[in-house]
Amino acid sequence: MGWLWAIIVGFVLGLIAKAIIPGKQHSPLWLTTIFGMLGALAGNAIARAFGVAATPGIDWTRHLFQLVAAIIIVALGDMAYMATLGKRKYRT
Q: pTM of the predicted model, to two decimals?
């Protein structure tokens, strides 16, 4: 069940990050989901480093760290995608 939640959270974070980033992102949905999963992992690590990984109630600070990390990873990942595979795909 842990992997299913990781995929769902990664999907949602990736889509929110794509919606926040200005302009069009060309990375496919499966790659955006992976970027979102990586953002969730990075956000959790950052929250743990700041000591806010587990708080009573909803962990808004941890979720904010996850979202910011997902935005950064989706933006960088999309640039890397377009620099390598994406140029050939969208050239025609």
A: 0.85
Percent helix, strand, coil in the chain (nearest 5)? 75, 0, 25
- pLDDT tens-digit series, residues 54-89: 778 888 888 899 999 999 999 999 999 988 886 666
- What does the DSSP 8-state code read for residue 51? T
Alpha helices in the chain (DSSP H): 2-20, 29-50, 60-81, 87-89
State whether the Cα torsion 83-85-88-92 is positive or negative. negative
3-state SS class at 74: helix
Separation between Cα atoms, residue 9 and residue 22, nearest integer Å:
22
Q: Exposure of 45 by Cβ count < 10 A (0-12 exposed, 13-18 middle, 19+ buried)?
A: middle
d(CA 58, CA 14) in angstroms, rounded, equals 20
